[in-house]
Amino acid sequence: MTAQPASPxxxxxxxxxxxxxxLAPAIESVLxxxxxxxxxxxxxxxxxxxxxxxxxxxxxxxxxxxxxIRENRGLIASLNQLLDEARSPLVARMDAxxxxxxxxxxxxxxxxxxxxxxxxxxxxxxxxxxxxxAWPVQHPDHPLMHTEMEEALxxxxxxxxxxxxxxxxxxxxxxxxxHAAFRHCEDFDLWLRLANQxxxxxxPERLLRYRHYAGQVxxxxxxxxxxxxxxxxxxxxxxxxxxxDPTASLDTLPPIEELDMLFGESGVAQRVRGRxxxxxxxSRSALTGDGLDLIIRHVREGGAREGxxxxxxxxxxxxxxxRAARLSAAxxxx
Length: 334
Known about the structure:
It contains 15 helices and 8 strands. It has about 325 residues and is α/β, with parallel strands linked by helices. This is Glycosyl transferase family 2.
């Protein structure tokens, strides 16, 4: 059995909920890292599948694994608990359905050691499907330098692959950890809060294999994620203006219609709806779910319509002619 370090240089933080399907290869990819001085915290968030048995088996073989078994409290509570439990000043995030390449930790630890002015480092990812085959993506690679990340954040673009990041634990805790209100976009909100406190970067190497599959949380909650990210940008804006962040103490975000009152200014709700609408144009789950109502409301409020006719055509290709007709009617009326 591999011994657990008394004072590890790195804490690896993984939360898992009913993740038995991909859990073993995810764990093995962490245990196979060339950098070995770590503890591996795996929190089972009340799973009802075989997750607990898999964790017990691996923990019996490798003492670096510290399983935490408890009732379901959700991802954000789990991530914050992992931050509290971690014994190292550095924390590497990892998800239970992804795969680390062997040198990921070594290269990220080396970067943070050489760049004390940076507190977050990610890397590029290789996108794969549920069988490990290449998953086609159309978005560009994430920016590398902090200045590029700031520009991307202003535009609402993704800057880091959450399960591929390594960060300094104390600073993440000092800015409040993961905020409960930003469910399904808790990482984007965290990067916005950290961007004003430290520098962030990505290594231009694919050191994580990021898995896509049906039923993935990010696909099921695309609309909530887009709305939350748009609200996080508004909170970032008011913090930059030296004002108090009205979302800081919230457990849940209010409906879009109440945002002007929450922020104490007009136009917030319309901006959030517009940004969220354009973040959903290529999401099949959102267009065939509650995202279409948000887009139509945006059109009726006089919002920008660029690309929305193509979205109507996309709905036809998705086998949703009635939804396509609803969007087309809203566009014609506007």
